[in-house]
Design goal:
The chain is α/β, with parallel strands linked by helices and about 325 residues long. Helix content is about 35%, strand content about 10%.
Length: about 325
């Protein structure tokens, strides 16, 4: 896989500073049951990195000391990691919103038969990747002719438990990623198309659609380099940059933690090896107070979050 960091580290992206910490995003590990083309983590069934219980306990202690709004659990497929349930339950016990970044097909993995019920019983919000509502496109992007059908069955099961149903209190958002080197279409209009198509063809309901731009790092960035499209994609991101998105980029209020407990401004910096404050730091060294006003580590990939309507793990910034 081509290294993208050397192409991104020199940048003219505007300087940013952190604000008050609101969200702890934890990448439990890179093991996943899929190998998606757009995956900025380069997760796959071959990855072995996983969080141990000691690191999970340090994170729980941090959450107990510094009450936050949101715990965002990601991977890989976070549900396939041993520390997923302890972290989720600790976050919920503290009154936090807990997000499970779910690929939907994990619901049909051996040993995960009761996963959907577990998520519902614990009141977890689900942010589920479904990069298109057309079967052929999903299967192509996510590497298997079984993926779309499995994802739909997963959504139908979650709906049967109340997810996406008005008044249930169980929220599920879907995530769209473009298939190639282009920006996402307007989020609100695409959401209408998703809801219409999935409802009519499969009886599926969900709360919101989140559109994410593909960042030019790891697997997607390497593919761009192989196809001679990296420079053109970067030009697209830079020419589409909007200053209006700088105030709401996720790195300003989110702390990203890797499976070893090391901290970063965002999950994208984590994958590029760009530590918080420019030097390696562990979550055990961090206080919420020290983060406020700290400069954010930036690179050319940051244009992926400010291009067009903006993009973050929470979808468009200016929908």
């Amino acid at each position: 896989m081509h290294a993208t960091y050397p192409l991104l580290k020199i940048t003219d992206f505007p300087r940013l500073q952190r604000t008050r910490l609101q969200t702890l995003q934890v990448n439990i590990g890179y093991f996943c049951n899929q190998s998606c083309l757009h995956c900025h983590v380069a997760a796959s069934p071959r990855r072995k990195e996983m969080m141990d219980s000691e690191t999970a306990q340090v994170l729980i202690k941090f959450m107990q000391q510094y009450p936050l709004q949101t715990l965002d659990l990601t991977g890989g497929a976070p549900e396939l990691h041993e520390q997923f349930k302890p972290l989720l339950e600790a976050g919920r016990a503290l009154g936090m919103r807990v997000i499970d970044r779910c690929n939907l097909t994990v619901l049909e993995e051996p040993g995960q038969e009761d996963l959907a019920e577990y998520l519902a019983e614990n009141g977890a919000d689900i942010v589920a990747s479904l990069p298109c509502y057309i079967e052929e496109n999903v299967n192509s992007q996510r590497g298997g002719d079984w993926v779309f059908a499995s994802s739909i069955r997963g959504l139908q099961k979650l709906n049967s438990l109340g997810y996406g149903i008005e008044g249930s209190g169980l929220n599920i958002d879907l995530v769209f990623n473009p298939m190639g080197p282009e920006l996402p279409p307007p989020q609100s209009a695409l959401e209408v198309d998703y809801k219409s198509y999935l409802g009519e063809h499969y009886g599926v309901q969900f709360n919101n659609l989140l559109t994410l731009a593909n960042l030019p790092i790891n697997r997607f960035g390497s593919t761009l380099i192989s196809r001679g499209q990296f420079a053109d994609y970067m030009n697209l991101l830079k020419s589409s940059h909007s200053e209006n998105n700088l105030d709401t980029v996720m790195c300003r209020s989110t702390l990203s933690v890797d499976y070893q407990g090391n901290v970063y401004d965002c999950d994208f910096n984590q994958q590029l090896g760009m530590p918080l404050g420019g030097r390696p730091r562990h979550i055990s060294e961090i206080t919420a107070e020290m983060l406020e006003d700290m400069p954010i580590k930036i690179g050319d990939h940051c244009y992926g979050c400010t291009a067009g309507q903006g993009s973050s793990c929470g979808g468009a910034l200016n929908a």
